[in-house]
Design brief:
By secondary structure, the chain is of the alpha+beta class. Helix content is 34%, strand content 19%. α2 packs across α3. The radius of gyration is 23 Å and the shape is globular. The protein starts with 8 loop residues before the first strand and ends in a 15-residue tail after the last strand. It binds flavin-adenine dinucleotide. The site of flavin-adenine dinucleotide has 45 residues, from α1, β2, α4, β9 and α5.
């Protein structure tokens, strides 16, 4: 690889890293509001972004359907336009606040659920092909933790449909796409963002990219876990880059485990399976959720369902050769419905397990799915420099890599496509305003690309005994086994020790490919650094939080403790390489949504 040439420079007004829903919404909104020179960088082809894998739906209180015969779990029917609505943004807000175990910020949640209705109609006007009711309105289904059916969908291809529509619109507005370009480093000095260093994957060319504004929309980080629903690209590069550049990470201890990952693979069987009426069964054939959430049953929120499954497994009622699975039963939904509304789910079960949900029980297990934490922002996507709320000028973030925080300690299904869209759009508008207000290019400190090149060169020169991949496999096993659905102080400390050992070993690990063109081996090494760095933050935050809240469930501290812990964790990197933690107040509307016990 030629790592010598650092003289190349590209300049844009706005550079967005990530072409998923958050990034493409921001690009479109900024371009529509007059931003001229907008670029989006993506390490994947933009349409391969993980947003496109989303299956089940996007939440908004459109009031299109209701349970027929008032049976909360029975079939749905369209609401005649003359009838009273059953849903509202207020109810969506309450469900989200409760789902978050009161750790979500109420100002951000209110914006999200109010904007939800408007953004759904915008998606519709931009040409999204949603599933429809007989009268043409958008079809809706139930989702966990939502008290009404408000997940709007396109069969089980929802993310695919939304992402394709947004990408087309970005092209229409002249957004420049750098496809298969890899962001390597973020340049921030004196709390001002100055640009990034990036690599053209095809040629190995390293370039400094200057911009008046940079936005992170780099998505999720499930790949730190052995069993995950996330695509291989979800390695948390944005978190790693930001953290290394001195930007804090917030609420990283909150990782969502989705209850229905395909057994041993982790690949997602959408929550729509349960939304459409699917059952969860233990090895005795019992619908065990009646013991944990008698009211909501399978449609309790994800944290609760995953814990219930894990408990059944631990108490010997699991299925599969090692008893580590649970059965998902869709058979009673019938062939016609499964083929019509869950075609992708069926295909996945057939392709990966050789089982057809029309006739077979599908073994599943909890799978690492979504990071509630991330780069802290205000409600316009401006990145916060610290727990006091100071801003880093010119740096923005939205989508799964960010933490605004609407999901608090546990996200409700279908709220994430929504969050990425709403706050992506808001960030794009805010950036257009920032540019119009006379933002300028900030001077570069030294030779950032030179520093990045040295870093890459070190990797290419390493000839240690171990391969990077072996270290990543150990990290993933550690995170799943010691920082998973249930946690305790002892295992978390073991995880912490293991991660610092792996960080040491990574320093001398080697990459096999030393070439310039499409060197994915080298990129995997950089991703391993990110995975280890933010995993260390996840574990440090989890050790400190001596309570159970949402997805963070401590066997040694089983209760929620509002007196001590009703606060966000903010982590900074220190010179020693260890995270230092501080805490930030949660924005709570004490009158309308005061903390309550969370029961389903
Ligand atoms: C299988 C699955 C199903 C889901 N189903 C639903 C659902 O039904 N409803 C729901 O609300 N949510 C769902 N989610 C969650 C939701 O899809 C994601 O949280 C959301 O789409 C994230 O969008 P994003 O724009 O933040 O990131 P992504 O869509 O993940 O995009 C990330 C982008 O960043 C780019 N990138 C990352 N690192 C770099 C780098 N170093 N250099 C350059 N580019 C980089 C990638 O190329 C990509 O373009 C699902 C998630 C999964 C995994």
């Amino acid at each position: 690889m030629d790592t010598k040439n650092s003289s190349q420079m590209i300049t844009h007004d706005l550079i967005i890293i990530g072409a998923g829903l958050a990034g493409s919404w921001a690009a479109l909104a900024a371009a529509r509001d007059g931003a001229k020179n907008v670029a989006v960088l993506s390490k994947l082809h933009p349409l391969r972004s993980h947003s496109g894998a989303a299956q089940g739906g996007i939440a908004a209180a459109l009031n299109n359907v209701r349970p027929a015969d008032k049976d909360p779990r029975g079939p749905l029917e369209p609401i005649p336009e003359t009838d009273e609505p059953i849903d509202s943004w207020e109810l969506h807000m309450y469900d989200t606040v409760k789902g978050s175990d009161w750790l979500g910020d109420h100002d951000a949640i209110e914006i999200m659920v109010r904007d939800a209705i408007d953004i759904m109609y915008e998606f519709e006007h931009l040409g999204c092909v949603f599933s429809r009711l007989p009268d043409g309105r958008i079809a809706q289904r139930r989702f966990g933790g939502h008290s009404t059916p408000r997940a709007n969908y396109a069969a089980d291809w929802t993310g695919h449909v939304l992402l394709h529509t947004m990408h087309e619109q970005c092209l229409r507005y002249g957004v420049n796409f750098y496809s298969e370009w890899y962001a390597l480093d973020l340049i921030v000095e004196d709390n001002v963002c100055r640009g990034i260093v990036a690599l053209e994957i095809l040629t190995g060319r390293i370039v400094t990219m200057r911009a008046k504004a940079v936005m992170f929309a780099t998505g999720g980080y499930g790949r730190a876990f052995k069993i995950t629903s996330n695509c291989t690209a979800n390695t948390g590069d944005g978190l790693g880059m930001a953290y290394r550049a001195g930007v804090p990470l917030m609420d990283m201890e909150f990782v969502q485990f989705h209850p229905t990952g395909l057994y041993r693979h982790g690949i997602l069987m959408s929550e729509a399976c349960r939304g459409e009426g699917g059952y969860l069964l233990n090895n005795k054939g019992e619908r065990f959720m009646s013991n944990y959430a008698p009211d909501k049953m399978e449609l309790a929120p994800r944290d609760l369902v995953s814990r219930s499954e894990q408990k059944e497994i631990q108490e010997g009622r699991g299925v599969g050769p090692d008893g580590e699975g649970i059965h998902l039963d869709l058979r009673h939904l019938g062939e016609e419905k499964i083929k019509k509304v869950l075609p992708q789910v069926r295909e996945i079960a057939i392709d990966f397990l050789g089982l057809d949900p029309i006739t077979d029980l599908i073994p599943i297990q909890p799978t690492a799915h979504y990071g509630m934490g991330g780069i802290p922002t205000d409600v316009d996507g401006r990145v916060l420099a610290n727990a006091d709320g100071d801003i880093i000028t010119g740096l923005y973030a939205a989508g799964e890599c960010s933490c605004v925080s609407t999901h608090g300690a546990n996200r409700l299904g279908s709220n994430s496509l929504l969050e990425a869209s709403v706050f992506g759009r808001r960030a794009g508008k805010a950036i257009a305003q920032f540019l119009q207000n006379g933002a300028e290019l900030a001077p570069l400190p030294g030779d950032p690309a030179g520093r990045t090149q040295q870093h890459l060169q070190r990797w290419l020169d390493n000839e240690g005994p171990e391969l990077v991949e072996e270290i990543v496999v150990e990290l993933q096993a550690t995170m799943t086994n010691k920082c998973g659905v249930f946690r305790d102080g002892k295992r978390l400390l073991e995880a912490q020790q293991k991660i610092s050992e792996l960080q040491q070993r990574l320093k001398t690990a080697r990459v096999m490919d030393k070439s310039s063109r499409f060197n994915t081996d080298l990129l995997a090494a950089l991703e391993a650094e990110h995975l280890l760095n933010f995993s260390a933050v996840i574990v440090a935050c989890a050790i400190n939080r001596t309570e159970s809240r949402g997805a963070h469930s401590r066997l040694d501290f089983p209760q929620r403790d509002d007196e001590q812990w009703l606060k966000h964790t903010v982590a900074h990197l220190t010179e020693s390489g260890e995270p230092v933690l501080s805490y930030k107040t949660v924005n709570i509307d004490w009158e309308r949504y005061p903390p309550e016990q969370r029961k389903y």
